[in-house]
């Protein structure tokens, strides 16, 4: 028994480390085309890889990508030493091209910059809040942005079709300049499906790690959560709605007082974590109930199946959002009822179902 008890903390610590690692440690990309995910995804200088598909807080290319780059992140950068032989497709907070892209560029971002040493040999298509071009575009450019600024060192070898406020060195455009109000800022429609798909994969992995921690650390509590959903989904959902609405109102009331401001800030962080855990527990509980109908009672299988369903729903507009919200309410309500039952206020013993 002692040996078994000692293994659980080690297992939990390992999972906690895995969660931290996947979100913060740079992921150095191998020479392959498999999707990469991490806090930072890097193709190092001197490294050569095939097609790169990546999602992360930051995606950096310092080396060579012989194929295409499809990237979604807070910041996507092709640095001065970076070389992309194919196309660049990205969705990010910011996209910076200081190196060379031999193919086409199709990006959607808050800001897009082609630096002075940056070169795009193919067509350049961007939808952004701000687009700054100080480098070279070897073909046509199509830009929809609030502000488009052409620097003194900019060169556009083809035509420029744009929508927004065009500023700076318009002599940089060798071809025709045409304003097209129909462009708007959404001229990179193919980025979103890729970003949504890769984000769903990344979310599934991170949620699976946190879910594994919860099941390993609180197995009996997790079973009680699933039981609350299976036995009383309507009641559990209503309790979850109360938690979902009540806690923010309580935090707002707390923030009104000067003394309560620090506590309300801490409460916001705790509530955000509760929402995350509630969503994971919600899908776990729903999957556990579905699997029980066919005689399968494995909690680990329920976690995987539930989170796969959740990841798939993120790709379904509107309907997926509605279902995700309902599952979240189930998870929040089940957590609240399980905690209440554990304190003995619900009917039944501590470890037994309260319904």
Write the layout of secondary structure elements.
Blueprint: H1 2-24, E1 26-28, E2 36-43, E3 48-49, E4 52-61, E5 64-65, E6 69-78, E7 83-84, E8 88-97, E9 100-101, E10 105-114, E11 119-120, E12 124-133, E13 136-137, E14 141-150, E15 155-156, E16 160-168, E17 177-179, H2 191-217, H3 219-231, H4 233-256, H5 260-292, H6 299-313, H7 319-342
Parallel strand pairs: 1-2, 2-4, 3-5, 4-6, 5-7, 6-8, 7-9, 8-10, 9-11, 10-12, 11-13, 12-14, 13-15, 14-16, 16-17
Enumerate the spans where pLDDT stays under 50 for 5 or more consecutive residues.
1-34, 187-193, 345-355
> Helix count, per DSSP?
7
Question: What level of helicity do the residues show?
Answer: 40-55%
Q: Going across the major beta sheet, what is the strand order?
A: 1-2-4-6-8-10-12-14-16-17
Largest sheet: 10 strands, parallel
Query: How big a fraction of the residues is strand?
Result: 25-35%
Radius of gyration from CA coordinates: 25 Å
Distance separating the two termini: 32 Å
Q: SSE order in H/E notation? A: HEEEEEEEEEEEEEEEEEHHHHHH
* Secondary structural class: alpha/beta
Which whole number gives the mean pLDDT?
Answer: 81
How many structurally independent domains? 2
Shape: elongated
**Strands, total number:** 17
